Amino acid sequence: MKYLDEYRDADAVRRLTDAIATVVTRPWVLMEVCGGQTHAIVRYGLDSLLPRDLTLIHGPGCPVCVTPTAIIDKAIALARRPEVVLCSFGDMLRVPGSKEDLFRAKSEGASVRSVYSPMDALELTKRSPDREVVFFAVGFETTAPANAMAVYQAREQGIDNFSILSSHALVPPAMEALLRSPSSQVQGFLAAGHVCAIMGCEEYEPIAAQHRVPIVVTGFEPVDILQGVLMCVQQLEEGRFEVENQYARSVPRQGNGQARDLIGKVFQVIPRDWRGMGEIPQSGLGLAPQYAQFDAERKFELEAIACDDDQRCQSGLVLQGRLRPEECPSFGKDCTPENPLGATMVSNEGACAAYYRYRSRALV
Fold it and tell me: SS3 of 339, please?
């Protein structure tokens, strides 16, 4: 709450919360599916400004958080191979595997490089022709075009010492999995604007119609989020279940055609394990057969890894919106950003990290 007065459109926020209060006549539960939106909600206390009958719950909106432990272990195993340089975005280095994280492996001599893009990793192959460069490709649809371009360029340039360890996840199948769960409370979704900027809004329409839930594509500013909430509640109160686009200034209905074409050329849709949610059919991206030579799992013959998450960590329930971070017994005690038990505490978009950063003094 203390940050709201620092926000440049604080008055607009208050007008929107007043408008929402006039619309709500019964209890509703909405879920945002974007870690950036979660952080804005928690930082500015937007949930505390809403009517008591309106509840916001946090979904699996952080690609780092839903990356399964087994693939973290595969990344660590690759980094420890003497011929390999493993490249990754920095927020993956502290995500726990079953026994350690990439940061720990690096401190013990594993070759781990933090990069800003997959193209940085591709460039490294030219400076290190005697090493195998592997890029840890984690993300939702948002990062898939850049990773696809790196693989495409590697083949075009005849670079054979480059590969990716893919852990791409697709958002709509996860939303459907949540709605099919008997424990689901979700009555409406705020969809992630950056994902829809790539993929568009059309793939959400069957979900809204089949499950009778409104879905509002929403931006990341407090005003965006509250406008999305208002649009979603208006639909619920009127008995409508449609896909609406609050973020039209950045999201065309059909998304980015060139980016979608590139994703479709380089990747194919596959089943994917989600941390805390298990395997979800058709919810991931793996390399298409014509690009299989750049698949690190195949190239290095990585075997399936069976591992268990730390039982003290309740991040799986947090990611499904079934538990708030402060309700986890380990929150702020056994689990902190310096010593995280799960990805939701260490990721820049994790719900636990947001609560620890902005609300921990009041909660712990």
Answer: strand
Is residue 325 situated within a structural domain? yes
Kindly state whether residue 326 falls inside one of the protein's structural domains. yes
Structural tokens at position 140: 């939702």
Tokens 């990611």, located at residue: 319
CA distances, 239 to each of 82, 182, 341, 358 (Å): 60, 22, 41, 35
Show the domain range for 322.
315-358
Number of domains in the chain: 1
- Alpha-carbon distances of 330 from 69, 217, 312, rounded to whole Å: 19, 33, 7
Q: Is the pTM of this model over 0.85?
A: yes
Helices (H) and strands (E) in the chain, counts: 16, 11
Question: Hey, what are 11's tokens?
Answer: 């008055």
pLDDT digits (tens, 9 = 90+) for 11-35: 888 899 999 999 999 999 999 999 9
Q: Tell me which residue has tokens 């604007």.
A: 193
Residue 174 contacts residue 208 (beta carbons within 8 Å): no
Cα distances (angstroms) measured from residue 224 to each of 37, 161, 192, 221, 359:
9, 44, 11, 5, 22
341 in a structural domain = yes
Let me know if residue 233 belongs to a domain. Answer: no
